[in-house]
Design brief:
The complex is a heterodimer. Helices cover 82% and strands 0% of the residues of chain A. Chain A has a single domain, classed as Fumarate reductase/succinate dehydrogenase, transmembrane subunit (3 helical TM bundles of succinate and fumarate reductases, Up-down Bundle), CATH 1.20.1300. The mean pLDDT of chain A is 94. Chain A contains 5 helices and no strands. Chain B is an all-alpha fold. Chain B has one domain: 3 helical TM bundles of succinate and fumarate reductases (Up-down Bundle), CATH 1.20.1300. Helix content of chain B is 76%, strand content 0%. Chain B is built from 5 helices and no strands. Chain B is elongated, with a radius of gyration of 21 Å. Classes of the chains: A mainly alpha, B mainly alpha. At the A-B interface, helix 1, helix 2, helix 3 and helix 5 of A face helix 2, helix 3 and helix 4 of B.
Chain lengths: 119, 135
């Protein structure tokens, strides 16, 4: 029985796990960048950090985590509030369209981010 | 969740009335911790665009790096920066609470209340510190 076709993984358990793993990657990335910025950084140092291969890999890991995490998070919110129960049949159409819109935004974030860190 | 699975097995269309007007209910602190995690998540979805924009400028050239630093000196930009940091901080702290609960700690109602209080307290402190850093 198919209950949902717009969730990210094959099932809720998979989404649950992906959401947690990506959250740890994102937390580590933001904590690291915050640490660098808090210590004060000049343009040459900042530039050098982001051109290091390990930092590029870390950044791409964070970007991929962002799009998975964002998809699953928005799916969770949409499938709770933009629903047939709350809005009638048009809820289903609107939820699908919004998920597509958020997906497109995430795709733009991914391409934009890749261009910055590896362009 | 069990109810949803159970309903799915029914062949007749479920027409039972749903009476859940959240506006009339007094919500526990755990509910506020949860809804704020969602609101901050949706907010961050939009804010991430600003963050990527800032990263782009900061890495383009020395001139762009300087103009970004200069732009962050304006009161409006400081306020936006603080709001984004506040969203990041709350979402992160509430996320860590989720991870702790996933590991089996604080899964009782009392544990949830305590976890929510800690989440609010830690976030408030970090958000205040972020404000001090921004200004």
């Amino acid at each position: 029985m198919v209950k949902s076709v717009t969730n990210f993984g094959r099932n809720g358990l998979s989404d649950f796990l992906i959401q947690r793993i990506t959250s740890v990657v994102l937390l580590a990335y933001f904590a690291f960048v915050a640490y660098i910025v808090l210590n004060g950084v000049t343009y040459p140092e900042w530039r050098e950090l982001f051109s290091a291969t390990w930092m590029r890999i870390f950044s791409v890991a964070a970007l991929l985590s962002l799009i998975f995490h964002g998809w699953i998070g928005m799916w969770g919110v949409l499938s709770d509030y933009v629903t047939e129960r709350l809005m009638g049949p048009k809820g289903n159409v609107l939820r699908f369209l919004l998920q597509l819109l958020f997906g497109a935004a995430l795709f733009i974030y991914l391409i934009w981010g890749l261009q910055i860190v590896w362009g | 969740m069990c109810l949803r699975a159970f309903r799915g097995t029914l062949l007749v269309k479920d027409t039972r009335p749903v009476n859940l007007d959240i506006g009339t209910m007094k919500l526990p602190i755990t509910a506020y911790a949860s809804i704020l995690h969602r609101i901050s998540g949706v907010f961050l979805f939009i804010a991430i665009g600003l963050m990527i924009y800032a990263l782009d400028s900061s890495l383009s050239s020395q001139a762009d790096f300087d103009s970004l630093a200069g732009m962050l000196g304006s009161p409006v930009a400081k306020l936006v920066l603080w709001a984004v940091l506040a969203g990041l901080i709350y979402h992160s702290v509430a996320g860590v609470k989720h991870l702790v609960m996933d590991m089996g700690y604080g899964e009782t109602y009392e544990g949830g209340v305590l976890g929510s209080r800690i989440t609010f307290a830690v976030s408030a402190i970090l958000i205040a510190l972020a404000g001090v850093w921004v200004w």
